[in-house]
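ping. complex inputs:
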Amino acid sequence: MSRIIFHIDVNSAFLSWTAVKMLREGQPDIRLVPSVVSGDPNDRRSIITAASIPAKKLGIKTAQPVSMALRTYPQLVIVGGDWEWYKQCSRGFIEICTSYSPVLQQFSIDECFIDMTGRCTEENAVTVATRLKDQVREMLGFTVNVGIGSNKLLAKMASDFEKPDKVHTLWESEVEEKMWPLGVRDLLWVGKKTEQRLLAYGIKTIRDLASIDVGQLSRLVGRKYAQQLHENANGRDDSPVETERTEAKSVSAERTFSRDYTDPKDIDRALFNVACIVAHRIRRQGFRASTVSMFIKRTDFTVAQKQTSLDQPTDVTAVILNEVRRMLTEIWDGSSPIRQVGIGVSKLTHESAFQMSLFEDPKMEYYRDWDRQYDESKAGQKS
DNA sequence: TCTGGGGTCCTAGGACCC
DNA sequence: TCTGGGGTCCTAGGACCC
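pong. complex structure:
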């Protein structure tokens, strides 16, 4: 049976949400002028998190350094983000979408799929989607695009057509007309590297990708990926709208320094801070981790990474930090400047803490106590 | 111009077991 | 003594998404 899927995407989410908040405070609508959301604009390393449509028209893009955008347009309006407010906006948005179909998959803070099969027909899908889009605008004050298709891929591709505040369809019968003329980079899962690789073989459009032999494509990009790309280029995708929220498989944190560090003390302090954050997060979620990984990024952006397996899963900051420090000595000679450090944990379980306690390091109780105090101080900050 | 932060998944090679 | 093939796990690295 043929499905009807909507993909709903908030237009320039963080920027729109900030605009709504500023409007409420009696300030002008930053959506109407070249504006961006970013980190501290005085930090040369800040990048743009979201850009208004007028800013995008000037060539200013998400993930671009703020300093670069300022050179493009010195009068650029720069605002900071507000994570709590964004979460509130996201909840309101998801709530409205859920009222159209409870079969909802949240794809990110500002995007979701809903399965509308049986809840509307191909004939009235656009009318229903328009109602949804208008309802979000009227109730919450920001605009969304709705993409409609017979599967998630087509719906997502459709929501990416003209913006903002638009509804588009991409039925299978429209793939040839609406999707095949697009460049390969426009296809979901085709990033910069894959585009370059494909272009080198003369594969320019999604149509080219759809008609190429899968075996040939496999040699270019690997078997699984080739199969997926080939299916998607032909408009096929049988993945369901997943309503279950899957548990995190890994937790990580990273810090980029305001200038590159060489002093081991600076590096160690950063690793300590990052380890605290990661360990705190897994404790809050009731996880223990069996794998600890870390990486350093050098001045030239090359990355060295290391990972290790633990005998016992842990959520203790000191244990994680200890492994990280050991791994650092294996990948860093202490002389080359470092731009960024990161720590990740994976192989997460909800295993209890008690086993093997007989053989536990006697200091462990002290470490745990330290963590408890850290967690309490964090909890205190929030409320 | 000079590039953040948080995730997921895949591949390839080596170790180890049967 | 030297040879095989398959399966699983681990680690490093690289691609993609928002």
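Residues 269 and 275 of chain A are 10 Å apart (CA to CA).
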